[in-house]
Amino acid sequence: MGYVKFAALWLSAVAVTAAMSWPADGQCRLCAKPETAVAPDASDAGISLQIESSLDFDRLILMGAGDGAAVIRPDGSSAAQGSLTDVSSRAMVGSASVHGEPNRAVRVELPRRIELFSNGGGQIAVDDVGSDLPALPRLDSAGNLSFRFGGRISIRGDSDGQYRGDLPITVEYQ
User: Fold this and answer.
1) Structural domains of the chain in order of their starting residue, each with its CATH number
2) pTM given for the model
3) Closest CA to 124 of 75, 32, 38, 62
């Protein structure tokens, strides 16, 4: 049986980048070398992303030596194919929330595929990662946006073990 659980550890780097301070303009603009970079919008420091629940396939049971796949969709539904018997009722869709400036459009990036690794050196992949985000996501009037994400995991008969991996999510104002 395989156990898969994601934690989005990379997310803290996004928050650090958005909260960095920038030097103030000096009195004399001719005394120093001019900067050609675009100054960041002051409101960009206020965006944050929080993982509410991790994508978790829980236990998957292979019946026989064939290949199988399990899907957890963003709406919470699941399915098993091939030699997998079923997706556990304890499997969970991932969910996240974004907080920032009200009514701002945001860009949310999720990878289409991630690699998972076991303590025994095994490797499998989750592909077809998707979310229930609208085509043009926007924070609501309170500055909040919640979304759910899921994916498909493919397993071979020799994929026994507990698998873990990171699902990096990037959020930026547009």
Assistant:
1) 2-173 (2.60.40)
2) 0.72
3) 62
Helix (H, G, I), strand (E, B) or coil at 99: strand
Amino acid at position 17, single letter = T
Per DSSP, the three-state class of 81 is: strand
Name the residue among 108, 128, 114 with its Cα closest to residue 170.
108
Tokens of 103: 């009514």
**What separation in angstroms does the CA of 79 have from each of 68, 73, 124?**
11, 9, 18
Question: Over the stretch 108-132, which tens digit does the pLDDT of each residue have?
Answer: 999 999 999 999 888 899 999 999 9
Distances (CA, A) of 42 to 38, 104, 174: 12, 13, 14
Residue 171 corresponds to which tokens in the numbers above?
């959020």
- Distance from first CA to last CA of the chain, Å, rounded? 42
Query: Which DSSP category does 174 fall into?
Result: -
Longest CA span, the chain = 75
* pLDDT of 94 higher than 50: yes
